[in-house]
Amino acid sequence: PTLAALLIAASGALVPGTADATPSPPQLIPHPAQLTPRAGTFTLTPSTKIILTTRNATAPAELLAETLRPSTGFRLPIADWFIGRDVNEAELDASDINATGLGGTAVVLTGGADPKTGPEGYQLDVTPKFVLIRANSAAGHFNAVATLRQLLPAKAEAKTRQRGPWQIKGASILDHPRYHHRGAMLDVSRHFFTPAQVKRYIDQLATFKINYFHLHLSDDQGWRLEIKSWPELTKIGGSTEVGGRTGQLFYTQQQYKDLVAHAQSRGITVIPEFDMPGHTNAAQASYAELNCDGQKRPLYTGIEVGFSSLCINSEVTYKFVEDVVREVAAITPGPYFHIGGDEAHSTPDADYQTFMDRALPIVKKYGKTTVGWHEFIKTTTDTAVVPQFWGTKTTNADVAAAAQRGNKVLMSPANKIYLDMKYHKDIKLGLSWAGYVEVKDAYSWNPGAYLDGVSEAGVRGVEAPLWTETLQTSADIEYMAFPRLPVVAELGWAPASIHSWDRFAPRLAAQAPRWKVMGINYYPSTQVPWQ
Ligand code: TNX
């Protein structure tokens, strides 16, 4: 090639006949709304800088740098000299990057995104000189960073220094989610997981644009968060778990705040759950006054459900509820409090109604919006609360009625996206009460047309719960979550119009090298064409 051609190539102009002229599309999960390959290749180099022009991008830029510094060994300094001044592609293209002091290539995070990106979308343009990320919110920048990580070679996720080159093929992406709520839940009550284990899962969630993390913090087997006004809850109720292991199996409020902050630094909002009025044995084992007969219950380390209930007609119960909600609300910046409400088989219907009539206003009083397992929605006509559907049928009259009134439903159908269901009968981990759930089963449903009477507009989003009766380690968590968690992320984000198992399965397979680099234990389903 002539010198002129080389210069044109270096400036990113389209050079006919080069391999870059027809790049193959990147294999992203979740799939973006719009993606157009373009000519040229971006390279991350020792002198690449991360430049931001908006405070919205501060934490996302830090997450990006924190991810890439160990693997590339590059400094990747974050420069914020241009705060408040949105830049566009033409401007960056015209600028002599060296003359402006940028030096080498740059990842630029700025505002001024196309309104089509909405409240949490973004635009991402990859050219030889720069990666330009435009978003109008912090959420948008976090989502763009998740995409950028997947555009880089898998080894970019390594915790130790790797050899380059660190290239990204040219692309133009305009992206926004199908649903606002893309969630995952971890049950830390049946088995306790340390803050480090929980952070590890949070970090994995962030790579798929999951934006809500629901922590199931109390159940029959354990109370897992320090409540200063009721110290025995953790002293006694946090002393054991399924299988009978003992220890200080709970988070202090300080540790919880640190978990919440960690999630926040990944763009994830924590939703704390305290399950009531059933699933309360650990609390009833801690305090005699929470029982109608005034007798403490024995600690429970089995896996039955439905045997416990708070004492509904006792004032102490509502003092307890208020103290818990007040203390938890004070250390939870997110707007939601999950009240549980499932499987209250030992609470008569009238008592269940009485309980919710008292408890729901308490949640409101402390400034939070109630989320609850769908059973609770029959007790209220408040359209602001969020019913979380966890059934196995496609009809539910109470949930449909709520959706008709205007409630937005969070979809977690157990036979589709309960991550604790076995993939098939020979899997050691997991349960099977909702059936076996292979990867394709988890993918093959439409959240916006699944429940009778609940249309696309009535759906708030999807959440993948992970119950831990049979799970004890991070490897166990990951084996159940991978690859079904990315499936749920795809359902929650990607446009419905691109839904196709045949096109999705190879894209899912293309993620496996990243999981290997990250040390993620995954189920190698024979349904997926792993390479
Ligand atoms: C049902 S789902 C439960 C949990 C169990 C789970 C096991 C729901 C709201 N309640 O208590 O852990 O099944 O899959």
UniProtKB/TrEMBL annotation:
Source organism of this protein record: Lentzea guizhouensis
Name of the protein described by the UniProt record: beta-N-acetylhexosaminidase
EC numbers on record: 3.2.1.52
Domain Glycoside hydrolase family 20 catalytic: 179-495
Gene3D superfamilies the record matches: Chitobiase/beta-hexosaminidase domain 2-like, Glycosidases
Keywords assigned by UniProt, alphabetized: Glycosidase, Hydrolase, Signal
Span of the signal peptide: 1-21
Active site: E343 (proton donor)
Highest taxon of the lineage: Bacteria
Lineage of origin: Bacteria, Bacillati, Actinomycetota, Actinomycetes, Pseudonocardiales
Stated family: Belongs to the glycosyl hydrolase 20 family.
